[in-house]
Amino acid sequence: MIEATDLRKLYRIADREVLALDGVDLRVAPGEVYGVVGQSGAGKSTLLRCVNLLERPTSGSVRVHGRELTAMSESELRGARRDIGMVHQHFALLSSRTVAGNVAFPLEIMGVRGAQRRRRVGELLELVGLQDKARAYPAQLSGGQKQRVGIARALAARPAVLLSDEATSALDPETTGSILELLRDLNRELGLTILLITHEMDVIKQICDSAAIMEDGRFLEQGPILDLLARPGSLLARSLFPLPALEDPDTVVLTHTRQPETAVLSELTRHFDVDVHMYGGAVDTIAGSTVGRLQLRITGAARAAALDHLREQGMGVEVGA
Ligand SMILES: Nc1ncnc2c1ncn2[C@@H]1O[C@H](COP(=O)(O)OP(=O)(O)OP(=O)(O)O)[C@@H](O)[C@H]1O
User: Is 204 found in the same domain as 158?
Assistant: First the structure.
Protein backbone atom coordinates (compact mmCIF):
# COMPACT_ATOMS: atom_id res chain seq x y z
CA MET A 1 0.00 0.00 0.00
CA ILE A 2 2.84 2.37 0.89
CA GLU A 3 6.26 1.31 -0.36
CA ALA A 4 9.30 3.51 -0.07
CA THR A 5 12.59 2.11 -1.31
CA ASP A 6 16.05 3.39 -0.39
CA LEU A 7 14.78 6.90 0.31
CA ARG A 8 17.43 9.57 0.70
CA LYS A 9 16.94 13.25 1.36
CA LEU A 10 19.87 15.59 1.48
CA TYR A 11 19.30 19.19 2.55
CA ARG A 12 21.91 21.77 1.62
CA ILE A 13 21.88 25.05 3.48
CA ALA A 14 24.76 27.40 2.63
CA ASP A 15 27.89 25.30 3.24
CA ARG A 16 26.15 22.72 5.44
CA GLU A 17 24.63 19.40 4.39
CA VAL A 18 22.10 17.37 6.38
CA LEU A 19 21.24 13.82 5.35
CA ALA A 20 17.71 13.75 6.80
CA LEU A 21 16.87 10.37 5.19
CA ASP A 22 19.68 7.90 4.80
CA GLY A 23 18.35 4.89 2.86
CA VAL A 24 14.92 4.27 4.38
CA ASP A 25 12.93 1.22 3.22
CA LEU A 26 9.32 1.31 4.34
CA ARG A 27 6.51 -1.19 3.66
CA VAL A 28 3.07 -0.43 5.04
CA ALA A 29 0.54 -3.21 4.31
CA PRO A 30 -3.05 -2.36 3.30
CA GLY A 31 -5.26 -1.76 6.34
CA GLU A 32 -2.50 -1.54 8.91
CA VAL A 33 -1.56 1.20 11.35
CA TYR A 34 2.18 1.78 11.06
CA GLY A 35 4.02 4.07 13.46
CA VAL A 36 7.44 5.65 13.03
CA VAL A 37 8.86 6.73 16.36
CA GLY A 38 12.00 8.72 17.02
CA GLN A 39 13.41 11.73 18.77
CA SER A 40 13.42 15.26 17.44
CA GLY A 41 15.60 15.52 14.34
CA ALA A 42 15.43 11.79 13.51
CA GLY A 43 13.89 12.55 10.11
CA LYS A 44 10.25 11.61 10.76
CA SER A 45 8.64 14.74 9.26
CA THR A 46 10.95 14.57 6.27
CA LEU A 47 9.89 10.96 5.72
CA LEU A 48 6.20 11.87 5.84
CA ARG A 49 6.68 14.80 3.45
CA CYS A 50 8.59 12.52 1.06
CA VAL A 51 5.83 9.88 1.19
CA ASN A 52 3.25 12.31 -0.21
CA LEU A 53 5.89 14.06 -2.32
CA LEU A 54 5.33 17.46 -0.68
CA GLU A 55 9.10 17.16 -0.66
CA ARG A 56 10.97 15.39 -3.48
CA PRO A 57 13.39 12.78 -2.14
CA THR A 58 16.96 13.20 -3.37
CA SER A 59 16.84 9.56 -4.50
CA GLY A 60 14.70 6.45 -4.01
CA SER A 61 11.13 5.68 -4.95
CA VAL A 62 7.70 6.01 -3.33
CA ARG A 63 4.66 3.97 -4.36
CA VAL A 64 1.26 4.55 -2.80
CA HIS A 65 -1.74 2.43 -3.73
CA GLY A 66 0.24 0.88 -6.61
CA ARG A 67 1.26 4.16 -8.23
CA GLU A 68 4.80 5.44 -8.32
CA LEU A 69 4.56 9.00 -7.00
CA THR A 70 8.25 9.69 -7.58
CA ALA A 71 7.70 9.28 -11.33
CA MET A 72 4.81 11.78 -11.49
CA SER A 73 4.69 15.40 -12.60
CA GLU A 74 3.35 18.08 -10.21
CA SER A 75 -0.08 18.07 -11.90
CA GLU A 76 -0.32 14.25 -11.75
CA LEU A 77 0.67 14.44 -8.09
CA ARG A 78 -2.17 16.81 -7.27
CA GLY A 79 -4.62 14.11 -8.41
CA ALA A 80 -2.75 11.27 -6.71
CA ARG A 81 -2.70 13.12 -3.38
CA ARG A 82 -6.51 12.76 -3.16
CA ASP A 83 -5.76 9.19 -2.20
CA ILE A 84 -3.67 10.43 0.72
CA GLY A 85 -5.26 12.30 3.65
CA MET A 86 -3.08 14.25 6.05
CA VAL A 87 -3.59 15.17 9.71
CA HIS A 88 -1.40 17.83 11.30
CA GLN A 89 -0.11 18.38 14.82
CA HIS A 90 -1.52 21.91 15.04
CA PHE A 91 -4.73 21.04 13.16
CA ALA A 92 -4.23 23.63 10.35
CA LEU A 93 -7.90 24.73 10.36
CA LEU A 94 -9.20 27.88 8.68
CA SER A 95 -10.24 30.15 11.55
CA SER A 96 -12.72 32.19 9.46
CA ARG A 97 -14.69 29.09 8.47
CA THR A 98 -17.08 27.04 10.57
CA VAL A 99 -16.43 23.38 11.32
CA ALA A 100 -18.68 22.42 8.38
CA GLY A 101 -16.89 24.98 6.20
CA ASN A 102 -13.49 23.50 7.05
CA VAL A 103 -14.62 19.96 6.25
CA ALA A 104 -16.29 21.20 3.04
CA PHE A 105 -13.10 22.92 1.84
CA PRO A 106 -11.43 19.94 0.06
CA LEU A 107 -14.81 19.00 -1.43
CA GLU A 108 -15.15 22.51 -2.88
CA ILE A 109 -11.72 22.18 -4.46
CA MET A 110 -12.76 18.83 -5.96
CA GLY A 111 -15.89 20.47 -7.43
CA VAL A 112 -18.42 18.61 -5.25
CA ARG A 113 -21.48 20.89 -5.06
CA GLY A 114 -24.77 21.61 -3.30
CA ALA A 115 -26.71 18.87 -1.60
CA GLN A 116 -24.05 16.25 -2.34
CA ARG A 117 -21.42 18.32 -0.55
CA ARG A 118 -23.68 19.02 2.42
CA ARG A 119 -24.51 15.33 2.69
CA ARG A 120 -20.84 14.33 2.65
CA VAL A 121 -19.96 16.96 5.28
CA GLY A 122 -22.78 15.59 7.47
CA GLU A 123 -21.46 12.03 7.08
CA LEU A 124 -17.92 13.08 7.94
CA LEU A 125 -18.96 15.03 11.04
CA GLU A 126 -20.95 12.03 12.20
CA LEU A 127 -17.94 9.78 11.60
CA VAL A 128 -15.83 11.87 14.00
CA GLY A 129 -18.66 12.55 16.50
CA LEU A 130 -19.06 16.28 15.84
CA GLN A 131 -22.58 16.47 14.33
CA ASP A 132 -23.58 19.13 16.88
CA LYS A 133 -20.58 21.40 16.13
CA ALA A 134 -21.17 22.03 12.43
CA ARG A 135 -21.78 25.76 12.92
CA ALA A 136 -19.07 26.35 15.54
CA TYR A 137 -15.80 28.12 14.67
CA PRO A 138 -12.40 26.54 15.44
CA ALA A 139 -11.77 29.07 18.25
CA GLN A 140 -14.83 27.67 20.07
CA LEU A 141 -13.48 24.10 20.06
CA SER A 142 -11.20 22.13 22.38
CA GLY A 143 -7.93 20.72 21.01
CA GLY A 144 -9.44 17.26 20.68
CA GLN A 145 -12.46 18.63 18.81
CA LYS A 146 -10.17 20.60 16.48
CA GLN A 147 -8.27 17.43 15.68
CA ARG A 148 -11.56 15.63 14.94
CA VAL A 149 -12.31 18.38 12.40
CA GLY A 150 -8.81 17.89 10.96
CA ILE A 151 -9.46 14.15 10.64
CA ALA A 152 -12.91 14.67 9.03
CA ARG A 153 -11.35 17.08 6.53
CA ALA A 154 -8.54 14.62 5.76
CA LEU A 155 -11.11 11.91 4.98
CA ALA A 156 -13.34 14.07 2.77
CA ALA A 157 -12.01 12.67 -0.53
CA ARG A 158 -12.24 9.08 0.77
CA PRO A 159 -8.47 8.51 0.77
CA ALA A 160 -7.08 4.98 1.07
CA VAL A 161 -4.19 6.24 3.17
CA LEU A 162 -4.02 8.64 6.09
CA LEU A 163 -0.72 10.26 7.10
CA SER A 164 -0.62 11.57 10.64
CA ASP A 165 2.05 14.09 11.61
CA GLU A 166 2.19 14.00 15.43
CA ALA A 167 -1.63 14.24 15.51
CA THR A 168 -1.81 13.96 19.29
CA SER A 169 1.36 15.78 20.39
CA ALA A 170 -0.51 18.99 21.25
CA LEU A 171 -3.17 17.15 23.29
CA ASP A 172 -3.47 16.06 26.93
CA PRO A 173 -3.22 12.30 27.68
CA GLU A 174 -6.98 11.70 27.95
CA THR A 175 -7.76 13.52 24.70
CA THR A 176 -4.81 11.74 23.07
CA GLY A 177 -6.45 8.45 24.05
CA SER A 178 -9.78 9.41 22.48
CA ILE A 179 -8.17 10.60 19.22
CA LEU A 180 -6.10 7.41 18.98
CA GLU A 181 -9.28 5.40 19.56
CA LEU A 182 -10.99 7.33 16.76
CA LEU A 183 -8.08 6.63 14.40
CA ARG A 184 -8.21 2.95 15.33
CA ASP A 185 -11.99 2.83 14.70
CA LEU A 186 -11.58 4.53 11.30
CA ASN A 187 -8.81 2.09 10.44
CA ARG A 188 -11.11 -0.84 11.21
CA GLU A 189 -14.39 0.52 9.83
CA LEU A 190 -13.05 2.04 6.62
CA GLY A 191 -10.06 -0.27 6.10
CA LEU A 192 -7.98 2.92 6.18
CA THR A 193 -4.21 2.44 6.05
CA ILE A 194 -2.53 4.80 8.53
CA LEU A 195 1.11 5.88 8.62
CA LEU A 196 1.83 8.01 11.65
CA ILE A 197 4.90 9.66 13.05
CA THR A 198 5.30 10.33 16.72
CA HIS A 199 7.86 10.84 19.45
CA GLU A 200 5.57 9.12 21.97
CA MET A 201 6.05 5.40 22.65
CA ASP A 202 2.53 5.31 24.09
CA VAL A 203 1.08 6.05 20.64
CA ILE A 204 2.94 3.06 19.22
CA LYS A 205 1.69 0.94 22.09
CA GLN A 206 -1.93 1.99 21.81
CA ILE A 207 -2.78 1.74 18.11
CA CYS A 208 0.02 0.49 15.90
CA ASP A 209 0.21 -2.94 14.26
CA SER A 210 3.75 -2.32 13.01
CA ALA A 211 6.44 0.17 13.91
CA ALA A 212 9.85 1.49 12.99
CA ILE A 213 12.34 3.12 15.32
CA MET A 214 14.10 5.96 13.55
CA GLU A 215 17.39 7.69 14.37
CA ASP A 216 19.67 9.89 12.25
CA GLY A 217 17.65 9.32 9.06
CA ARG A 218 17.64 5.52 9.34
CA PHE A 219 15.32 2.80 10.60
CA LEU A 220 17.11 0.98 13.42
CA GLU A 221 14.45 -1.74 13.50
CA GLN A 222 11.03 -2.23 11.95
CA GLY A 223 8.28 -4.81 11.63
CA PRO A 224 5.08 -6.06 13.23
CA ILE A 225 5.18 -4.93 16.86
CA LEU A 226 4.64 -8.34 18.42
CA ASP A 227 7.44 -9.83 16.29
CA LEU A 228 9.77 -6.97 17.21
CA LEU A 229 9.10 -7.35 20.93
CA ALA A 230 10.01 -11.04 20.86
CA ARG A 231 13.28 -10.40 19.03
CA PRO A 232 16.38 -10.51 21.30
CA GLY A 233 17.94 -7.06 21.62
CA SER A 234 14.78 -5.27 20.48
CA LEU A 235 15.01 -1.51 21.08
CA LEU A 236 11.23 -1.31 21.07
CA ALA A 237 11.01 -3.89 23.87
CA ARG A 238 13.60 -1.95 25.88
CA SER A 239 11.69 1.30 25.43
CA LEU A 240 8.29 -0.13 26.29
CA PHE A 241 9.54 -2.32 29.14
CA PRO A 242 12.63 -0.73 30.68
CA LEU A 243 14.54 -3.12 32.94
CA PRO A 244 17.62 -2.44 35.07
CA ALA A 245 21.00 -3.44 33.61
CA LEU A 246 22.36 -6.40 35.63
CA GLU A 247 25.90 -7.77 35.68
CA ASP A 248 24.69 -11.29 36.46
CA PRO A 249 25.49 -13.65 33.50
CA ASP A 250 22.66 -15.98 34.56
CA THR A 251 20.08 -13.28 33.87
CA VAL A 252 17.47 -14.08 31.24
CA VAL A 253 14.96 -11.63 29.85
CA LEU A 254 11.87 -13.43 28.70
CA THR A 255 9.33 -11.75 26.44
CA HIS A 256 6.03 -13.40 25.74
CA THR A 257 3.64 -11.90 23.25
CA ARG A 258 0.91 -14.50 23.09
CA GLN A 259 0.51 -16.49 26.27
CA PRO A 260 0.72 -15.88 30.01
CA GLU A 261 4.10 -16.62 31.50
CA THR A 262 2.85 -18.22 34.73
CA ALA A 263 2.01 -21.64 33.30
CA VAL A 264 5.23 -21.66 31.30
CA LEU A 265 7.39 -20.92 34.33
CA SER A 266 5.81 -23.52 36.59
CA GLU A 267 6.09 -26.02 33.75
CA LEU A 268 9.75 -25.08 33.38
CA THR A 269 10.62 -25.89 36.97
CA ARG A 270 8.52 -29.07 36.85
CA HIS A 271 10.15 -30.50 33.74
CA PHE A 272 13.71 -29.16 33.93
CA ASP A 273 16.29 -29.23 36.69
CA VAL A 274 16.49 -25.45 37.09
CA ASP A 275 15.86 -22.75 39.68
CA VAL A 276 14.03 -19.63 38.59
CA HIS A 277 14.27 -16.34 40.49
CA MET A 278 12.32 -13.28 39.49
CA TYR A 279 14.15 -9.92 39.39
CA GLY A 280 11.33 -7.88 37.91
CA GLY A 281 9.11 -7.28 34.94
CA ALA A 282 5.84 -5.94 33.63
CA VAL A 283 2.77 -6.97 31.68
CA ASP A 284 0.91 -4.65 29.32
CA THR A 285 -1.58 -4.71 26.46
CA ILE A 286 0.17 -3.96 23.18
CA ALA A 287 -1.29 -4.20 19.68
CA GLY A 288 -4.32 -5.86 21.32
CA SER A 289 -2.24 -8.66 22.90
CA THR A 290 -1.09 -9.24 26.44
CA VAL A 291 2.67 -8.83 26.40
CA GLY A 292 4.97 -9.61 29.32
CA ARG A 293 8.67 -9.00 29.79
CA LEU A 294 10.31 -10.64 32.73
CA GLN A 295 13.82 -10.39 34.08
CA LEU A 296 14.73 -13.73 35.62
CA ARG A 297 17.73 -15.60 36.96
CA ILE A 298 17.73 -19.17 35.66
CA THR A 299 20.37 -21.54 37.03
CA GLY A 300 20.88 -25.30 37.18
CA ALA A 301 22.15 -28.28 35.20
CA ALA A 302 19.33 -28.12 32.62
CA ARG A 303 19.58 -24.35 32.00
CA ALA A 304 20.43 -24.66 28.27
CA ALA A 305 17.64 -27.19 27.64
CA ALA A 306 15.18 -25.01 29.59
CA LEU A 307 16.08 -21.95 27.48
CA ASP A 308 15.64 -23.99 24.28
CA HIS A 309 12.24 -25.08 25.54
CA LEU A 310 11.23 -21.46 26.15
CA ARG A 311 12.32 -20.55 22.61
CA GLU A 312 10.29 -23.46 21.24
CA GLN A 313 7.27 -22.05 23.08
CA GLY A 314 7.65 -18.87 21.00
CA MET A 315 9.17 -16.79 23.81
CA GLY A 316 11.74 -14.10 23.16
CA VAL A 317 14.81 -15.20 25.16
CA GLU A 318 17.68 -12.79 25.85
CA VAL A 319 20.58 -14.24 27.79
CA GLY A 320 22.78 -12.20 30.14
CA ALA A 321 20.74 -9.04 29.59
N1 LIG B 1 13.73 22.18 5.01
C2 LIG B 1 14.85 21.81 5.62
N3 LIG B 1 16.03 22.37 5.32
C4 LIG B 1 17.17 21.97 5.91
N5 LIG B 1 17.24 21.01 6.85
C6 LIG B 1 16.10 20.42 7.23
C7 LIG B 1 14.84 20.79 6.63
N8 LIG B 1 13.87 20.01 7.19
C9 LIG B 1 14.49 19.22 8.09
N10 LIG B 1 15.83 19.46 8.11
C11 LIG B 1 16.83 18.76 8.93
O12 LIG B 1 16.66 17.37 8.71
C13 LIG B 1 16.79 16.64 9.93
C14 LIG B 1 15.51 15.84 10.18
O15 LIG B 1 14.45 16.76 10.47
P16 LIG B 1 12.94 16.31 10.64
O17 LIG B 1 12.11 17.53 10.87
O18 LIG B 1 12.55 15.42 9.52
O19 LIG B 1 13.04 15.44 11.98
P20 LIG B 1 11.86 14.97 12.95
O21 LIG B 1 12.22 13.61 13.43
O22 LIG B 1 10.55 15.14 12.29
O23 LIG B 1 12.00 15.99 14.14
P24 LIG B 1 10.83 16.80 14.92
O25 LIG B 1 10.09 15.76 15.71
O26 LIG B 1 11.58 17.76 15.77
O27 LIG B 1 10.00 17.46 13.86
C28 LIG B 1 17.11 17.66 11.00
O29 LIG B 1 18.50 17.71 11.17
C30 LIG B 1 16.60 18.96 10.43
O31 LIG B 1 17.32 20.05 10.92
Answer: yes
In a domain, 230, yes or no: no
The 3 state secondary structure assigned to 197-236 is: EECCHHHHHHHCCEEEEEECCEEEEEEEHHHHHHCCCCHH
State whether the beta carbon of 41 lies less than 6 angstroms from ligand 1: yes
The pTM assigned to this predicted structure is 0.91
State in Å: Cα 22 to ligand 1 middle: 13
Residue 260 pLDDT greater than 80, yes or no: no
Domain that holds residue 129: 2-224
Question: Is 54 a pocket residue for ligand 1 (Cβ < 6 Å)?
Answer: no
pLDDT score of 288:
83
205 plus 117 within the same structural domain: yes
Position 233 in a domain: no
ipTM of the complex model:
0.96
Atom number of ligand 1 nearest to Cα 199: 25
CA of 264 to the centre of ligand 1 (A): 46
In the listed set 224, 255, 278, which residue is the last one of a domain according to the structure? 224
CB of 44 closer than 6 A to ligand 1? yes
User: Helix 261-271 to helix 303-312 angle, to the nearest 10 degrees?
Assistant: 140
Section 162-191 average pLDDT: 95
